[in-house]
Design a protein that fits this description.
This protein is mostly helical. 75% of the residues lie in helices and 3% in strands.
Length: 158
């Protein structure tokens, strides 16, 4: 119905913005890990930091692929009514990816990541913006329920 069709484009645009914000978190954390020294070693020399960055990159690239797949469906003329679940799941993936990347970027910055000035100020601001992305277009819980209810309806027709 209405919620399935009319919010698809909003959810899609939110996902694109979330992907960009996630990339900013990754970029800032990567740069910080390459330049900041702790106990005489650059952060990037720590395997846990490399793992955080790799996991951020994995989630961001998966989100980007999902965005491009749905963009192709839109541009190929797939009707909005057929894309409600996909846009709902995309928006959830986007907000969860952004939340993860923002949290991990703050961890890489340490105390500088929770201060509104200095080298961690962008990461601090992005971390505060996460909820503002997760709520518009439908909360994660509502969107996940929407997607599964659609799957149940389709399965019942088989």
């Amino acid at each position: 119905g209405y919620i399935m069709v009319n919010f698809n484009h909003e959810r899609f645009v939110i996902a694109i913005g979330s992907c960009r914000s996630s990339r900013l978190c990754y970029q800032e954390a990567f740069h910080e890990s390459m330049t900041r020294k702790v106990f005489g070693r650059k952060l990037i020399e720590n395997g846990v930091i490399r793992w955080k960055l790799a996991e951020m990159a994995r989630q961001i690239e998966a989100l980007q692929d999902n965005i491009e797949r749905i963009a192709f469906q839109f541009s190929s003329g797939v009707p909005d009514s057929a894309l409600g679940s996909q846009c709902a799941l995309l928006k959830v993936q986007a907000s969860k990816t952004f939340e993860y990347c923002a949290r991990e970027a703050v961890q890489v910055f340490g105390g500088s990541g929770i201060v509104k000035e200095g080298r961690g100020k962008l990461v601090e601001r992005l971390y505060r913006e996460v909820r503002g992305v997760a709520i518009p277009g439908g909360s994660e819980e509502i969107l996940l329920d929407l997607a599964i209810r659609t799957a149940v309806r389709k399965a019942a027709k088989l």
